UniProtKB/TrEMBL annotation, chain A:
Lineage per the UniProt record: Bacteria, Bacillati, Chloroflexota, Anaerolineae, Anaerolineales
Species of the source: Thermanaerothrix solaris
Recorded topology in the membrane: Multi-pass membrane protein
Name of the protein in its database record: Heme lyase CcmF/NrfE family subunit
Keyword Repressor in record: no
Record-stated family: Belongs to the CcmF/CycK/Ccl1/NrfE/CcsA family.
Function: Required for the biogenesis of c-type cytochromes. Possible subunit of a heme lyase.
GO MF terms, alphabetically ordered: lyase activity
Transmembrane segments: 6-26, 47-66, 86-109, 121-143, 194-216, 228-249, 265-283, 295-316, 328-349, 370-393, 413-431, 443-460, 466-487, 516-535, 645-663
UniProtKB/TrEMBL annotation, chain B:
Record protein name field: Cytochrome c-type biogenesis protein
Similarity remark: Belongs to the CcmH/CycL/Ccl2/NrfF family.
UniProt source species: Thermanaerothrix solaris
Function: Possible subunit of a heme lyase.
Keyword rRNA processing attached: no
Segments passing through the bilayer: 12-33, 113-134
Keywords: Cytochrome c-type biogenesis, Heme, Iron, Membrane, Metal-binding, Signal, Transmembrane, Transmembrane helix
Pfam families: CcmH
Domain CcmH/CycL/Ccl2/NrfF N-terminal residues, every copy: 41-142
Entry-linked InterPro entries: C-type_cytochrome_biogenesis, CcmH/CycL/Ccl2/NrfF_N, CcmH/CycL/NrfF/Ccl2_sf
Length: 685, 176
């Protein structure tokens, strides 16, 4: 019964979405208010309907209804309650329902707020979001239905169907197969939802962009309306990526945080184009330039969002994340092609209307440097896209699959990331409109000299690798420039208003959250860069096989193997857990427990490292093998310098995004008031 | 006398036996000598395995892959290293057995050159576009024309009030 209700709610939501599209298009074309209102209400109805379906699916998951195929595939009796709930997005069908649910929530939030203010755009925003929603609901209903059940046919065969075939009786397995072990982690609560929230919320700026194209509004209004949406989308996507990296570092047991896996890149690509978009919209807002480019970026970001979901969900690329393979690839591909072509068609239709309003006067102006930033982000995006897609091309053309591994990405993107850091050091000091070498030099020379002194200090302390020196110089430059910017502004404000320095800083950041939030983000990026430099350039590793009492040495650290415990747990795992003591020099610094978990239900193993973590470095121990060697237990040991700065930088980065995206208490009502007054004025005459 | 000589000269059977014996001895000595070479360490094996992938565990480098099959591959690498093979010979051996996909990057030949050529080429195209944009933007003729263009760019049927509002809002943005 629950399954029928859940499926029924999805079908009704799908029909309502289709109706909403028709009503909104008709209402907008004919300027008929009742139809528009009807379309809007249809939009608002989708969320409660999908919510009902989600509630049904979660209740099936939690109560162990293993006759439902999805429940059987992603849960088992052993799993704790929180994992049974998160299993909603642990498999393909469920995660598509979850995607649709978030999409409906975001689209509803847009139409509930500011309906009066943005009435010109909103019918088309409804159309775009509902088309996306209808596509996902269609996939769920017709291809990947999470409510299908097992049936025993009269002739003894088993069948999978939504409704009972003639003469069949329900088949209820005693236990499920359980979630993929890689996903049985607290990270499962946050990482996938954050990525999905990021994906889904990027649909909103795209929808407004398309609405602006359709209605012929060629100014920056759509950008200003969606600025906060874009930042929120970016925040979620960044959070999703950072949490995913941390999860990989903690669980996947390869000593790293980022493996350039196609599914990681799938989430990274919309982040790249989204970051380029966040910067380039400022050029349009401040200077009225590059309207076409902003449209291209937002269309590209939307296409990459759907492409990212496609990569994860279609099974077209095999990767460590490829636990969700199915035959929905062609449908996704068709949808991406169709929406991309339609959006680009619209853009070409408005091409001449979207001319720049101003001119660029200086190669060193902020807008010129932002364009360079966009070029670098696009460069990284091309490297990523090409690396992900090339194995498919090779397979199609030559019949042979190839691997495009981390070395390709690191070599190709390294210089581009370095150039981005350099720009982060220079661009904040340049002015909008006009900057010369002289003005820029005047602002830059102090941080520049200080950063060179940092490098000299590093050289004197024994760092000789030129790549490390260059990387640390860039980090120092960006940090100093950013802090110098704060310092100059705080001192100026202190002089003008007499406020003390702390209050001046607070008020400064409060008055221009976007700018100073942006600087905090930059500081977060350099801290993250510090962690990345540490692990990429200075990571060392060794592997050895030892008996109890034996030790492995790596750098200053020594790991002493004490004993190995092998035992079964109540939640269906066989655990092999080593106890090792860690010494730094001669000093005992802690005990670690690297382990291997074998999951009986899914017959898979998982490697969980033991990590001794400080801001200086991580000592990271993996249990490699305890069965096949007569000489003892094999361990792999990594020394990861500075890696914790990556996580600290991630926190600062998120803080900065929150500051930049925090709603303006005074500004927004003032704007709403202003537009209301004008609307009243419009109506009166 | 000659009979004595003949007696001293070994019989054909003895010659064959002698050759076999000496071959066995040489084999033992050689084997002993090779056993004296240190067995390649895990780190030496991992240094090669790090850049290789087995066809089953896609996108998991061979050095950290936990499956039995990959452990066997690592043992095979160790064996080949012990036999004195170079890294390149070992990789060639695996490529011959399992195809190009075992390598961390496509080999630089034929179609695979696209992997390495296309990104820098497209970046170059991006640079050219950017240079073109800068040049066009800075042309005095364009500057003179731009206010007209700006007026043209505004939607013809736009409401003056809305335009006024937009302008006010933009000024606010610039002001902060």
């Amino acid at each position: 019964m629950i399954a029928e209700v859940g499926f029924g709610a999805l079908i009704v939501a799908f029909i309502v979405a289709i109706y909403g599209i028709v009503a909104a298009v008709y209402g907008a074309r004919r300027h008929m208010e009742p139809w528009l209102e009807s379309g809007r209400r249809a939009m608002l109805l989708t969320w409660p309907l999908i919510t009902l379906s989600v509630v049904c699916l979660v209740s099936l998951l939690v109560s162990g209804h293993y006759e439902v195929q999805y429940v059987y595939n992603v849960t088992s009796n052993f799993m704790p309650l929180y994992l049974k709930i998160t299993a909603l997005w642990g498999g393909q069908a469920g995660s598509l329902v979850f995607w649709s649910w978030l999409m409906a929530a975001f689209a509803s939030a847009v139409t509930l707020r500011k309906w009066e203010r943005d009435r010109e755009f909103l019918p088309w925003v409804i159309v775009v979001t509902l088309v996306t929603l209808a596509f996902f609901l269609g996939l769920v209903i017709f291809v990947e239905n999470p409510f299908v059940r097992f049936w025993q046919m009269p002739d003894g065969r088993q069948a999978v169907a939504m409704f009972a075939p003639r003469g069949a009786i329900p088949l209820v397995p005693m236990d499920g197969r359980g979630l993929n072990p890689l996903l049985r982690h607290p990270g499962m609560i946050l990482h996938p939802p954050m990525l999905y929230l990021g994906f889904v919320s990027f649909v909103i700026p795209y929808a407004f962009g398309v609405a602006a194209l359709i209605t012929g509004r060629t100014d920056d209004r759509w950008i200003r309306i969606t600025r906060r949406w874009t930042l929120v989308a970016w925040l979620f996507l960044s959070l999703g990526l950072i949490l995913g990296s941390r999860w990989a570092y903690d669980v996947l047991g390869w000593g790293g945080y980022w493996g350039w896996d196609p599914v990681e890149i799938a989430a990274f690509m919309p982040w790249l184009s989204g970051t380029a978009f966040l910067h380039s919209v400022m050029i349009q807002e401040k200077r009225g330039l590059f309207k076409r480019w902003n449209m291209i970026l937002v269309i590209l970001t939307y296409a990459l969002v759907i492409f990212g979901t496609f990569l994860t969900r279609s099974g077209v690329l095999s990767s460590v994340h490829a636990f969700a393979q199915s035959a929905i690839g062609p449908l996704f591909f068709g949808f991406i092609a169709l929406t991309f072509a339609a959006s680009m068609g619209l853009l070409l239709y408005r091409w001449n209307d979207l001319r720049s309003e101003g001119v660029m006067t200086s190669l060193l102006s902020r807008e010129a440097l932002f364009l360079l930033n966009n070029l670098l982000f696009m460069g990284i995006l091309v490297v990523c896209f090409w690396g992900v897609i090339y194995p498919l091309i090779s397979e199609i053309v030559t019949g042979q699959k190839v691997t495009v591994g981390p070395s390709y990405y690191e070599r190709s993107t390294g210089p581009l990331f370095a150039a981005l850091l350099l720009l982060m050091g220079i661009a904040p000091l340049s002015a909008w409109g006009h900057s010369t070498v002289k003005t820029l030099g005047r602002a830059l020379w102090k941080p520049l000299v200080a950063s060179v002194l940092v490098v000299i200090g590093l050289w004197l302390s024994g760092v000789r690798a030129w790549s490390a020196l260059l990387a640390f110089w860039l980090v120092a430059l960006v940090t100093l420039v950013t802090l110098y910017e704060y310092y100059r502004a705080v001192v100026a404000r202190h002089r003008r208003t007499g406020e003390n320095y702390l209050l001046a800083l607070w008020n400064l950041a409060g008055r221009n959250r976007r700018r100073y939030g942006g600087y905090i983000i930059h500081l977060g990026v350099v801290l993250m860069a510090l962690g990345i430099i540490g692990i990429e350039l200075f990571q060392t590793e060794t592997q050895g096989t030892v008996q109890p009492g034996g030790s492995i040495r790596l750098g200053d650290y020594t790991m002493l193997f004490q004993r190995l415990d092998v035992f079964d747990t109540q939640d269906g795992r066989n655990v092999a857990r080593a106890v090792v003591s860690v010494f730094k020099g001669d000093r005992f610094v802690g005990e670690l427990h690297p382990r291997r978990d074998f999951f009986y239900d899914s017959q898979q193993t998982m490697t969980i490292p033991g990590v001794r973590s400080t801001m200086e470095d991580d000592f990271y121990v993996i249990l490699v093998d305890w069965q096949s060697s007569a000489q003892g237990i094999t361990f792999k040991v990594y020394h990861n310098p500075l890696v914790n700065w990556l996580w600290l930088g991630g926190l600062v980065f998120i803080l900065g995004t929150l500051v930049a995206a925090w709603p303006d208490r005074e500004g927004v009502p003032a704007r709403a008031r202003a537009s209301q007054t004008l609307v009243t004025q419009r109506v009166k005459p | 006398m000659s009979g004595k000589v003949l007696r001293v000269f070994p019989s054909p059977l003895t010659v064959v036996l002698g050759i076999v014996l000496s071959l066995v001895l040489v084999g033992i000595v050689a084997g002993w000598a090779s056993a004296q070479q240190p067995t390649p360490s895990d780190d030496e094996v991992n240094a090669i395995a790090k850049t290789m992938y087995c066809p089953v565990c896609e996108n998991v480098p061979l050095d950290v892959c936990p499956t039995q099959a990959c452990a066997q591959w690592r043992e095979l690498i160790r064996q080949k290293l012990a036999e004195g093979w170079t890294e390149q010979q070992i990789k060639d051996y695996f490529v011959a057995q399992y195809g190009d996909r075992v390598l961390g990057e496509p080999p630089r030949r034929g179609l695979h050159w696209l992997v390495y050529v296309l990104p820098p080429l497209s970046f170059l195209v991006g640079v050219l576009i950017l240079v073109n944009v800068f040049r066009n933007m800075r042309r005095p003729k364009e500057i003179a024309m731009s206010p007209g263009a700006a007026i043209q760019a505004a939607p013809s049927g736009d409401d003056p009030y809305v335009q006024q509002l937009e302008e006010e809002l933009r000024r606010r943005e610039r002001g902060d």
